[in-house]
Amino acid sequence: MQNIKNMKLWYPYAQMKTKEENFHVESAKGTKIKIKGGNELIDGVASWWCACHGYSNHELNMAAMEQMEKFSHVMLGGLTHDPAKDLAELLVDITPEGLNHVFFSDSGSVGVEVSLKMAIQYFHNKGYEKKSKFVGLKNAYHGDTFKAMEVGDDPDFHGAFSKVFKDAYHIDPPRRGYDVTETEVEEDIAKLEEVLAEKHDEIAAFIVEPLIQAAGGFNFYSPRYLERAREVCDKYDVLLIFDEVATGFGRTGKLFAVNHTNIVPDIMILGKALTGGYLGHAATVASTKVFEAFYSDDPEHAFMHGPTYMGNPITCAVALKSFEIFKRDNYLERIAKIERYLVERFEEIESDLIDSKRVFGVTGVVEVKDSKDLKGFQKFAYDRGVWLRPFGNYMYTMPPYIVEEDEMGRIVDVMKEWFDQRKN
Ligand code: PMP
Fold first, then answer.
1. Measured between alpha carbons, how far is 109 from 111 in angstroms, rounded to an integer?
2. So what's the pLDDT on residue 224?
3. Residue 246 CB less than 6 A away from ligand 1
4. pTM recorded for the entire structure
5. Which of 141, 150, 396 to probe ligand 1 with, by most ligand atoms within 8 A of CB?
6. Are 91 and 285 contacting, i.e. CB atoms less than 8 angstroms apart?
7. Can you name the residues that pair with 168 across neighbouring β-strands?
8. Which of 31, 34, 152, 313 is the most exposed, having the fewest neighbouring CB atoms within 10 Å of its CB?
9. Is position 373 annotated as part of the catalytic site?
10. How far apart are alpha carbons 227 and 223 in whole angstroms?
């Protein structure tokens, strides 16, 4: 056993007593991660939905450098600057019509907190004091800060804290599948309607990860559910919040998951790939309807929130450059190509151990019946020069969008080989 005193770096989501030391990165460039004294790995997970351009991209490096040479962080209290203003303008341009006001923060979790605070205060400012609770989906994940944990629903992540959660209801998530029948959608949406019909006078918002419940099990579901959720929320005067921290910037095959629908949420949160995976930042983008409830002569109607690093100029400069590359290099075409490739090659992965397989945009998931059947897979992939990191029953890949076909091929080969070796 290691000496506790030597364990100075406390890793996330890990029992420090039993875990092995993490693989130690020496350098990372493009799609490759080089392990100190070890293998060079093709990155199959893009640092969890964020490193969409891969690592150490020269243009992003220069965008950060150039901004740092002009000025480093200045707080958005009393001061403003082009990078923050330009990024706000860009986000208003590229998000659906009606989302017009951008509040920056420093991580996805805080971006979610901001959206929840906005929802409560929206009703407070309008005189509906009681509307301060939330509805979320079972198996949802919205981050690790308190209210984000509460609207999420993941006992593995948040079990010790559930005793202090009291303001969120969780309904069954919609069934899996992009193409479902109207009757199925109605059955699923009835669960939302049931809660809102009874509790709408105390509910401020319904929050969802649109189309992909990410950390809660890669549940891919139908845009129709979201369209119907919009109608039900409107009927009961409940705000609709889309947490696009994971799905934003191309993961689902369109720029945002919301672009698969014909609706606009009241608030949308972006994070992760917003900065091309470079720096922690999030944007909570609100509709004019929401913003107007804060826009008043009453100082108490102001939104009292302001993370020190919100709108950090270096971060904003990198985010602007990241989107420029996304557009210029036709990432949506690349994404469509990767999706087609994944769909085709996943056909070849077969085993009795598998419960189901699914691909959506640049995310491919193999779900096994028993999580024990993935034990040792990370090391197996490492030995074959691929970085994959299963959790629970899920073996998955969500590579950077710059991944080449032969690299994608290596990733899928390793997944397939794992199951082939387990056949009798
Ligand atoms: N929302 C979703 C959907 C996420 O997947 C995550 C992170 N995995 C978060 C919020 C929290 O983001 P962060 O880790 O940047 O706080």
1. 5
2. 98
3. yes
4. 0.97
5. 141
6. yes
7. 134
8. 34
9. no
10. 6
Q: Which of the residues in the chain have pLDDT under 50?
A: none
Per-residue pLDDT, 1: 57
Q: Under a CB-based contact definition with an 8 Å cutoff, are residues 283 and 322 in contact?
A: no
Report the alpha-carbon distance of residue 122 to residue 178 in Å, rounded: 33
| DSSP at 365 | E
- Whole-complex ipTM: 0.99
φ/ψ of 37, rounded to 5, equals: 65, 15
* Residue 420 C-beta-side C-alpha neighbours within 13 Å: 9
Residue 157 zone, left/alpha/beta (φ > 0; ψ -120 to 50; rest):
alpha
What size, in residues, is the chain? 424
| CA distance readout (Å), 286 to 42, 117, 157, 174 | 38, 12, 28, 25
Query: CA 297, CA 28: separation in Å to the nearest integer?
Result: 51
pLDDT tens track for 189-201? 999 999 999 999 9
Q: Which residue has the tokens 């309607």?
A: 193
- Residue 47's contacts (CB-CB under 8 Å, 6 or more residues apart) are 277
Does residue 243 have an active-site annotation? yes
Instruction: Indicate which atom in ligand 1 lies nearest the CA of residue 107.
Output: 15
H or E stretch at 412: helix 405-420
Q: Which atom of ligand 1 approaches the CA of 272 most closely?
A: 15
Q: Is the CB of 105 under 6 A from ligand 1?
A: no
Short-list 346, 348, 352, 356, CA closest to 393? 356
Cβ–Cβ under 8 Å, residues 142 and 209? yes
Structure tokens at 268: 């949308």
Distance (Å) from CA 421 to ligand 1 centroid: 35
- The answer to whether 139 and 151 have CB atoms below 8 angstroms apart is no
